[in-house]
Design a protein that fits this description.
The complex is a heterodimer. In chain A, 34% of the residues lie in helices and 23% in strands. Chain A is an alpha/beta fold. Chain A has one domain: Rossmann fold (3-Layer(aba) Sandwich), CATH 3.40.50.300. In chain A, the strands form two sheets. Chain A has a six-stranded mixed sheet, sandwiched between helices. In chain A, strand 9 and strand 10 form a beta hairpin. In chain A, helix 3 packs antiparallel against helix 4. By secondary structure, chain B is an all-alpha fold. Chain B contains 24 helices and no strands. Chain B starts with a helix and ends with a helix. Classes of the chains: A alpha/beta, B mainly alpha. Chains A and B meet through helix 2 and helix 3 of A and helix 13, helix 17 and helix 21 of B. Chain A: Belongs to the ABC transporter superfamily. Chain A: One of its GO terms (molecular function) is ATP binding. Chain A: It holds the Pfam family ABC_tran.
């Protein structure tokens, strides 16, 4: 029998299954194909980076992967649990930080974490302890009594990450987690994520910042035009150059060189 | 600059134009043209008292001006706001001119021109010279109301981010609703004014208001009193310039931080809910949101304020008959104005979707929190009103209406909120104003009609009991009323929960993108069914006309004829010969029921077609 306080850790993990497996995920918005049959596998213990230019379909793919957007076709499995058919089990194993979504805006940071702890049926002591620790490591103690509606973008990211970590998930799916986060907080977050992976957890994060992905991730996938154009261990994807060079080459972009916008030169 | 901003406004409006917006725009234009035409008709009336017509026109023009002042409460953010141009190096006066030009382009200005055109009609009765004066007067009066509306809109937006501002907005909303639904009392007043005129003091005040200056100028032109004409016109011009200057000065960046932010203070009197821990967490979240979110505070104030004002209005005729129903009206208005709970919370739904089992508890928790807020206030108002009314026979009606409205309202509010979710500005972007919200008129009507439908069987039995003089039948009717409403609440709650679980991601997508059309594809099921209220104003027009036919044109004349106190006012049947009256009343009942039925068929038809 599961103790109430342990509910967040109770879901059985199929250790032989990938942390996340996406098979043929596809999404069409009107005339525009956002994601075209995406296949991706993230192994347990992996720190996986998903990169791609604006409009590549990263957010759509991640939303479908975690069950926040219903795909037109394809499946998503979290440690073997189908995100749509076995939603409860999958959601216990998942911690998610989406990009650009609201929260209960009129709760304070502390109230939000307490509320989610109760909703996830953590016992009061455990919830209070974790709330304190999370507010502390996210450097949000000073803002713990401020409603979220008054948080800055970086603070919203941090409280969002705290909500993703609160129930001790096995897989973290983070959409642009470092966007607008100050360097000091970012260093703290990186440390938390590295420890999470070292402890057996898996992370899938999307980012525009190649240096960050290069610094943190052991595996990367490059998305363009709604599909993965390259995926694998970091050293193989980036080759002999930097990840940024490989990225620009893969997505078919060109670097601005020579005389551009000459009227800007005063 | 003016031309650029006008073209920009028209482009934005054209890009944002959907079938539903176009339909609502037409309905809005029609709704505005009706009173505008009435104003012109009024200018053609004969008055029994010298000066009475001028008094009356001054009164109506003051009402138009008041309406323009409060217009921003409902119209939300303007299409073009000064914030969009904060980084453009424009002088404020130039920007203000441009924005004013853009504000003048639109249906409301056209409606105002027609309404104020009544001044030309009035002037035509006085001669050629007054008409010559009336033409610039109309332009000046329209310019005056538009500038005044911009200024009051700016002021309202400045204070509406705070809870106090939201409460003021709630009171204004309640007052305007009372004024609109008790319009027939205004008709009684107008009838009186035409016969005997206003009292000298009121007449002086009404004419002295800026809304009456143009009229005074025309009146003076009729008497060839050119000095007064010049003073009135010059005064109007100066006033417009002053208002414009004030407004242009207010267009800078907002200096004040958002006021009323709750820095972790715990609202008093949290409901002591004992039960499922997760549900209690939702209740607690909702309770805090109700006291902190300006949009919700507005609802919290508007519902009881509307009920108290409406029920106190008959006190003017020494009648306390409506007082015991203040509680029921609070519950009805509370449900009607809360009919978009998920739309208001926007994309925060993702948290509910990602926690196992949270959707079920979310529906229940919201229902309990709403009950904890509106239940006690409704019951207290019912008890207070009942005591003041002091008629024993009214208690079963008051109790049945209040409890029935509470139970029926809470279920319908949640069901409609899920089934016909209207996306508005996401709450994280709505931090400064409770005036920003989607168009929830359709949802409000569904809840209103739904409450009527679930309580009417019980009321029917009670009415029969009253007619046959059986107290026990009245009691059975009251119990039936509450019972049916409770069963409806259980059914609606269960269905809302199932829909939320089954279609949560689609609802989230709808709120994320503001449209569900993106997901439409061959073979796909619509995420939330048809948002009837947005796309088919025909449904709501039928419902409104049906209610008008049933209630003011049939039920009210019935009561008047039974009581023997007949005031014909705008009740068609009572203007006819006695032997025709019951026939017309019966026809109005039939027409009303037919229109309401048609509305229901259209509504169901739209749902089924998806």
């Amino acid at each position: 029998m599961t103790r109430r306080g342990e509910r967040g850790r109770s879901a059985e993990v199929d250790s032989s299954a990938p942390a996340l497996r996406l098979d043929g995920l596809r999404k069409v918005f009107g005339e525009r194909i956002a994601v075209t049959g995406l296949d991706l596998t993230i192994e347990p213990g992996s720190f996986f980076g998903l990169v791609g230019p604006n409009g590549a379909g990263k957010t759509t793919a991640l939303s479908m992967a975690v069950g926040l957007l219903r795909p037109d076709a394809g499946t998503s499995h979290v440690f073997g649990a189908d995100v749509w058919q076995q939603a409860g089990r999958a959601r216990e194993l998942l911690g998610v930080l989406p990009d650009g979504l609201a929260m209960p805006e009129h709760l304070t940071g502390r109230e939000l974490l307490t509320y989610l702890g109760r909703l996830r049926r953590l016992d009061r002591t455990t919830a209070a302890l974790r709330t304190d620790e999370l507010l502390d490591v996210m450097d949000l103690m000073d803002a713990q009594r401020t409603p979220i509606v008054d948080y800055s973008t970086g603070m919203r990211k941090k409280i969002g990450l705290a909500t993703a970590l609160l129930h001790a998930p096995k897989l973290l799916v983070l959409d642009e987690p470092f966007e607008a986060v100050d360097p000091v907080s970012a260093a703290g977050l990186k440390h938390i994520l590295r420890r999470f992976v070292a402890g057996g957890g898996s992370v899938l994060l999307s980012s525009h910042v190649m240096a960050l992905v290069e610094e943190l991730c052991d595996t990367v996938a490059v998305m363009a035009g709604g599909d993965v154009v390259a995926a694998g261990p970091l050293h193989l994807v980036k080759g002999h150059g930097t990840l940024e060079d490989a990225f620009v080459e893969l997505v078919g972009g060109t670097r601005a060189e020579g005389e551009v916008l000459p009227w800007l030169v005063s | 600059m003016v031309g650029v901003l006008i073209r920009m406004k028209l482009t934005i409006m054209r890009r944002g134009m959907t079938d539903s917006r176009a339909s609502w725009m037409l309905v809005g234009a029609f709704a505005g043209l009706c009173p505008a035409s009435c104003t012109i008709w009024l200018a053609t009336r004969e008055a029994g008292h010298p000066g009475a017509l001028v008094d009356l026109l001054a009164l109506v023009l003051a009402m138009w001006t008041f309406g323009w002042m409060l217009g921003p409460v409902w119209s939300g953010e303007p299409v073009l706001g000064p914030e969009s141009f904060a980084l453009v190096p424009l002088r404020r006066r130039v920007l203000a001119l441009g924005l004013l030009g853009a504000a003048l382009v639109g249906i409301p200005t056209g409606v105002a021109l027609i309404a104020f055109g009544a001044l030309v009609v009035f002037a035509a009765r006085l001669g050629v010279a007054p008409v010559m004066v009336a033409v610039p007067v109309v332009v000046l009066q329209v310019l005056f109301v538009v500038v005044l509306s911009q200024l009051t809109g700016r002021a309202l937006r400045a204070v509406s981010g705070s809870r106090l501002g939201a409460a003021v907005a709630g009171l204004c909303t309640a007052a305007m609703l009372v004024a609109s639904q008790s319009g027939w009392i205004v008709f009684v007043a107008l009838d009186e004014v035409l016969v005997s005129g206003l009292s000298p003091r009121v007449s002086w005040v009404i004419r002295a208001l800026p809304s009456g200056w143009g009229l005074a100028a025309i009146d003076a032109a009729g008497r060839a009193d050119w000095g007064v004409v010049a003073v009135d016109l010059a005064g109007l011009c100066v006033l417009i310039v002053v208002l414009f200057t004030l407004w242009s000065r207010s267009l800078g960046p907002r200096r004040r931080a958002r006021s009323g932010a709750v820095r972790g203070s715990r609202p008093a009197m949290r409901p002591g809910f004992r039960g499922d821990e997760a549900t209690a967490a939702v209740v607690s979240r909702e309770w805090r949101a109700w006291w902190r979110d300006p949009l919700r505070v507005q609802t919290l104030v508007a519902a009881p304020a509307f009920a108290i004002m409406s029920c106190a209005l008959p006190l003017a005729f020494d009648s306390t008959a409506l007082l015991p129903f203040a509680g029921a009206l609070t519950a009805v208005m509370g449900a009607v104005t809360s009919a978009n709970p998920y739309g208001q919370d926007g994309t925060a739904l993702w948290l509910t979707l990602l926690v196992p089992g949270a959707a079920r508890r979310d529906v229940r928790g919201r229902a309990l929190a709403w009950m904890a807020l509106f239940g006690p206030s409704s019951i207290v108002l019912m008890l207070g009103g009942g005591v003041l009314n002091d008629r024993a026979g009214v208690w079963p009606w008051a109790v049945a209406a209040t409890l029935g409205a509470l139970a029926g309202g809470v279920g319908l509010m949640l069901l409609v909120g899920v089934e016909q979710l209207v996306p508005g500005p996401d709450p994280r972007r709505r931090k400064s104003s409770p005036l920003d919200h989607g168009n929830v008129t359709g949802q409000a009507f569904v809840v209103l009609i739904g409450i009527g439908a679930v309580t009417c069987p019980g009321f029917g039995v009670m009415w029969v009991g009253e007619r046959v003089g059986s107290a026990s039948t009245v009691g059975v009717g009251a119990v039936l009323c509450v019972l049916v409403a409770c069963l409806s609440a259980l059914y609606c709650g269960r269905r809302a929960r199932r829909t939320l679980i089954a279609r949560g991601p689609e609802l989230l997508h709808l709120m994320r993108t503001g449209s569900n059309s993106d997901t439409s594809r061959a073979g796909a099921t619509s995420p939330v069914g048809e948002r009837v209220g947005q796309r088919h104003p025909m449904v709501w027009m039928c419902a409104v006309l049906g209610l008008i036919a049933c209630v003011p044109q049939a039920l009210v004349p019935t009561i008047m004829k039974i009581n023997g106190t007949i005031a014909p006012v705008w009740f068609l049947a009572l203007h006819l010969p006695n032997n025709w009256q019951w026939l017309v009343i019966g026809f109005m009942y039939g027409l009303g029921i037919m229109l309401l039925g048609l509305s229901g068929i259209l509504y169901r038809g739209r749902l089924r077609s998806f």
